[in-house]
């Protein structure tokens, strides 16, 4: 018997859809409210670490993800400069265990579609273009008012509405994402044939230049710099700036540079970070994923952690018969320190670069891989 029968979720990202899948699978009545009018997820590619892939198996979507992603087991370090000299090819840790590759690159909208299909197939209702405007709660449930004027009463409200979570504000948690000092250019481009796994270039004018294949045909490429005010640029100006910034890098970057254009989804954003340092619930409202914690993608764990939040929460709810303190104590115990360690490590990697310090990068990455290898 589940602790909840009727649940509302704000946000149809990885965290919200993972929770919707697991709850619907348990026979819970689930409504997901997504602010965007449709699922044309912005963004380009995402690197999914092994522990995210292991979670996808639990969600019943790994087979489909596997068909559409680009699996990889190594990471290559290259030098800036015209030759893009290979410095090292390093086996990447299989944090999801031996049944999953170390990592997979994927086109974000493809992943979103797979998760949406699975959630709806199991009976979750996903409403686009609708949000939760206000809420009140008592010991037994949460009353929500929706943007279309309708109301509902649910046993639990999950705020999975991302880094600028409206649900977080509604329950009075005033933690806000803070800029870390870096900004990232990203683009979605054809995959040069020689690119078969993630390549990272440290040094040159950028902190990091890199790319990750997402399919036979495509990949995403990125450049990390000191954060700058890049607001107000036309798409053409963004393409031109990103193209210019690639000139210090050769090898596959020559083809990337030539292919950058209007359809490359060139995007610029600052790295930010936050963590709710304490329970992520207020009564029967709980925050998961980026609504609760976020970090720069220096170890690409954001998606994995968002999905793990949903897995742990839904596992506890399925086992318990009521939503009480024991649920929240266990959820906090299993999630807070793990998320904190990942956020701290992601920030540390960025800080070493910003301060031009030679930190123990392999040691830190190794410790995170060890942590991520243990199922949440
Ligand atoms: C530049 C960059 C690169 C990254 N690269 C990686 C990577 O390679 N690998 C990785 O694992 N992670 C990466 N991340 C982090 C990763 O994208 C997030 O951790 C992950 O998407 C979190 O999922 P989420 O569902 O919590 O939030 P989101 O994916 O942000 O989903 C939240 C959803 O809620 C919706 N929403 C927002 N407001 C409301 C509202 N008021 N009502 C209803 N719906 C609302 C949004 O439209 C969205 O669909 C990266 C992040 C950044 C910024």
From TrEMBL:
Protein name: FAD-dependent oxidoreductase
Pfam families: FAD_binding_3
Keyword Metal-binding: no
SUPFAM superfamilies named among the record's database cross-references: FAD/NAD(P)-binding domain
Source organism per UniProt: Pseudolysinimonas yzui
Gene Ontology MF annotations: FAD binding; monooxygenase activity
InterPro entries according to UniProt: FAD-bd, FAD-dep_Monooxygenase_BioMet, FAD/NAD-bd_sf
Keywords assigned: Monooxygenase, Oxidoreductase
Occurrences of domain FAD-binding (ranges): 6-345
Keyword Metal-binding set for record: no
NCBIfam families: PRK06847.1
């Amino acid at each position: 018997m589940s602790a909840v029968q009727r649940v509302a979720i704000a946000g149809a990202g990885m965290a919200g859809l993972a929770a919707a899948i697991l709850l619907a699978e348990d026979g819970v009545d689930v409504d997901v409210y997504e602010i965007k009018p449709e699922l044309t997820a912005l963004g380009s590619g995402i690197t999914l670490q092994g522990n995210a892939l292991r979670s996808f198996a639990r969600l019943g979507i790994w087979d489909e993800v596997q068909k559409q992603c680009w699996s990889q087991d190594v990471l290559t370090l290259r030098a800036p400069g015209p030759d893009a000299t290979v410095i090292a090819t390093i086996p990447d840790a299989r944090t999801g265990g031996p049944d999953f590759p170390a990592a997979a690159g994927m086109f974000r909208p493809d992943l979103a579609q797979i998760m949406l299909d699975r959630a709806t197939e199991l009976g979750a209702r996903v409403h686009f273009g609708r949000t939760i405007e206000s809420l009140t709660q008592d010991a037994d449930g949460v009353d929500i008012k929706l943007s279309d004027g309708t109301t509902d009463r649910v046993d639990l409200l999950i705020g999975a509405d991302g880094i600028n979570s409206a649900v977080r504000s509604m329950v009075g948690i005033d933690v806000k994402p803070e800029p870390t000092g870096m900004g990232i250019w990203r683009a979605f481009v054809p995959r040069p044939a020689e690119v078969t796994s993630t390549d990272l270039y440290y040094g040159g004018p950028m902190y990091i230049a890199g790319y990750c294949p997402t399919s036979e045909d495509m990949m995403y490429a990125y450049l990390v710099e000191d954060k700058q005010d890049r607001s107000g640029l036309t798409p053409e100006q963004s393409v031109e700036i990103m193209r210019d910034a690639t000139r210090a890098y050769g090898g596959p970057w020559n083809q990337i540079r030539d292919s950058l254009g209007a359809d490359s989804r060139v995007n610029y954003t600052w790295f930010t970070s936050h963590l709710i340092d304490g329970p992520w619930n207020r009564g029967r409202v709980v925050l998961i994923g980026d609504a609760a914690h976020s970090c720069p993608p220096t170890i690409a764990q954001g998606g994995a952690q968002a999905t793990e939040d949903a897995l742990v929460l839904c596992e506890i709810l399925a086992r318990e018969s009521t939503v009480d303190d024991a649920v929240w104590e266990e959820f906090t115990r299993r999630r807070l320190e793990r998320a904190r360690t990942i956020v701290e490590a992601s920030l540390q990697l960025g800080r070493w670069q910003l301060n031009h310090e030679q930190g123990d990068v392999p040691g830190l990455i190794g410790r995170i891989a060890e942590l991520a290898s243990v199922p949440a």
